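Narrative summary of target 7.
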Amino acid sequence: MAQLPICQLEKEQRFEGFLLVRTADQRTGGNGAKYLDLNLTDKTGEVNAKVWDGNVPCPVPGTVIKVRGTTLEYNGRLQLRVERIRNAEDSDPVDLSLLAPCAPEKPEDMFAELKKTAQNIGNETLRLITLDLLSRYEEKLLYYPAAQKIHHAERAGLLHHTSGMLRLAKLIVQQYPFLNQDLLFAGVILHDLCKTEELDSSDMGVVKDYSTEGLLLGHLVLGVTRIQEAANRLGLSGEAVLMLQHMMLSHHGEAEFGSPRKPMFPEAEALHWVDLLDARMNEMQGAIAKLKPGVFSEKIWSLDRRLYHVKYSELEGENSGNP
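Modeled conformation, tokenized:
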């Protein structure tokens, strides 16, 4: 019998099947007993799970396990109480395509789109640095997520996020033709490349943790460093290099979100808002997809609000543009 997708689970329901481990921790309860706290996922969603047997070894994030248990509701959230757990074996009928959330487009196609845009950048300094760094990170880009949990947390999610931003940027330069498109496009392509160094991801696109460099420096500082290294390697210097580095430092917009400088020129400001918009739309789309029309979500902490699934069927019309 086919395994029930996580998105279809309801409370007080039996479940047995294979799931991907997103996070796994051994913790100690108030009574001193050890237990496992897991976040398990398939391509349709994620569920928190508890293993109350303190003798069960903690599975490794990014691996596939087989679990058997019963769902329950705890603090308004669905939870899986696991009775049996084991690592998946080579002989198990595991379909990985059903377990790992993946970007909706082929990674190779998205990478080719970025590379083609980079090849068409007119400014030589911007073009050479962008192509150099794309080449450096190509292998990881084909599977790396954009985040551990929040937006584009999927296999090839970093490419999904960057290609979405690039398409949006190409529309924005039509509305604001005074923007330097070479600078904006290069900034978009490069802005998050160093997440491949900041995050420790499996080839399934599941982030195990932040790297040492990620925790100590972060992808903004790493990005500035890699741009300078590429410029030195290519014998380049000048305004274009400095502007790219500022875009790396400022694209989060505010100090509270990690940017030591606010955007100080239009292309840097555009990069910040394109980044934020694409991330927010992806996060909202994922949250709304889990709701029935006419229903509010629980508070989404990263957005600091609840979301509402609009009854789009009631808005249907000749030019409604329904999702």
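The chain has nine helices and seven strands.
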